[in-house]
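Workshop exercise sheet. Pairs work together: one partner reads the sequence aloud, the other fills in the structure field after running the prediction. Swap roles for the next sheet.
Pair: D.N. / O.F.
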Amino acid sequence: MSVAAGRTKATGHYLRKRLRSPRWARRGAMFSGLLLVVSILVYRLGGIDFTALKAAFVVVLGLAGLSFLIALVALIRVWRGGHEGGGPAVGAVFAALLVAAPFAFIVYLAARSPQTNTAESDGMLAADIVAGASIGEALGANPAADAAFPLLRTPEPQSQVTSRRFQARAAQVYAVARTVLAAKGWELVAVDAGEPEASDQGDDLGISGTVDVPLPTPRSSIDLAAASDPFARADADAYMLQAVATSWILALPSEMTIRIVEDGTETFVDMRSTSRAVARDLGQNRRYVDGFLTALDEAMAGIAAIVPPGVDG
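Structure field:
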């Protein structure tokens, strides 16, 4: 730029100040995102426990928030003073918002989910089933005995799901329930079956014709069947299944109890899911219970007629 004034020729140029803070803000926001991913990977590999992971989340959120504020101040200075650095500042803002998005979603789930870490169907006998009681004890238990589990919170009405009942035998429902568990990738860890149903063949088992000659079953075939399917059970009128499901990202475990009880021509199914690692599950266990029972409805549709809730048989 040049200006002629009389015989004097003045030369010069317009200087714009370059801000350094936007670049640091962008680096901080990107580092917070990298720290978030690495923390989750290390936790999944067993390098840190859940408490350390939560501490890492606090650092990630704090760093992303600080980067966002620095970038915001830089944008104001760029707008008012015409300084350079608007591009890095905008990049820092978007990077910080991207890192903060999962935490914002968690806050949203926490606001709309009940403050509990458990969910159950409305007919579940909660405390004794979680304690691992037998079927007979669970059916006669008092559902108010939850005091022994300090982390276990009483389910709120929003976390309860309608129980299911089917026009089918308990053994049929048990077989279908195992199929649904396998399809969802949940681990079945224990099965407690009730008393085996009486055989319809009377006392003629092991008799050849009219001669009282026992027909024994080879021991090897029994052992082979038990080894191939450890949860195979004789037909009974009640089953109690214990299963474990893990969340997708953090692999937080939820312990599940599924109760199948036959009553006359109907079989009732109840379920409970509880998170042991957290005090609030953000509605995850409700989704587990609802998803399992819905899948069970669909799987049983071709086997038995589903009795709608609230309709007496």
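Discussion prompt: The two ends are 94 Å apart (CA to CA). What would you look at next?
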